[in-house]
Write a structure and sequence with these properties.
Its main location: membrane. With about 140 residues, this protein is mostly helical. About 70% of the residues lie in helices and about 5% in strands. It has a single domain, classed as Non-ribosomal Peptide Synthetase Peptidyl Carrier Protein, Chain A (Orthogonal Bundle), CATH 1.10.1200.120. Helix 2 crosses helix 4. The chain is elongated and about 110 Å long.
């Protein structure tokens, strides 16, 4: 069983998948930082707030020690039911950024593949036996005339 597992793990597609997951996680962190640290503050500023992810509606009782608080994380940690639409918008922007970058990446890959298909393939060299048979045929034709 251990030998089968080792064979399974050493397959190329499993290793490729592992590398893709690791790169995807790192890429996700970059996109999260781009969204939270660069884009959302600008969007928040346009809509009148500096931290867009802190936009929420309180749906239940707020504990006495947190009354008047606008700290989304603290309220959520205290178990207050919240409708965090700002956080949802942040995650939606994250998704759109990732989807757009993947779209651009696939577009480039497809263009490269299309270019390879358009390039005329060099004709394969003629096999020696075919060339010899062709010479014999031509010689026989020449003798008939």
């Amino acid at each position: 069983m251990l030998k089968e597992f080792k064979t399974f793990i050493m397959r190329g597609n499993v290793l490729d998948l592992a590398v893709a997951v690791i790169i995807g996680a790192a890429f996700g962190k970059i996109v999260t930082s781009l969204t939270e640290d660069i884009l959302m503050p600008v969007i928040g500023r346009i809509f009148g707030g500096l931290d867009f992810s802190s936009y929420f509606l309180v749906l239940g009782e707020v504990p006495a020690n947190l009354r008047g608080s606008t700290d989304y994380a603290a309220l959520k940690k205290a178990g207050v039911p919240l409708l965090g639409y700002g956080e949802f918008v942040t995650q939606a922007v994250n998704f759109l950024i990732v989807a757009f970058i993947i779209f651009l990446l696939l577009r480039v890959v497809n263009a490269v593949l299309a270019k390879k298909e358009e390039a005329p393939a060099a004709p394969a060299p003629e096999a020696a036996d075919v060339a010899l048979l062709r010479e014999i045929r031509d010689e026989l034709r020449a003798r008939r005339t």
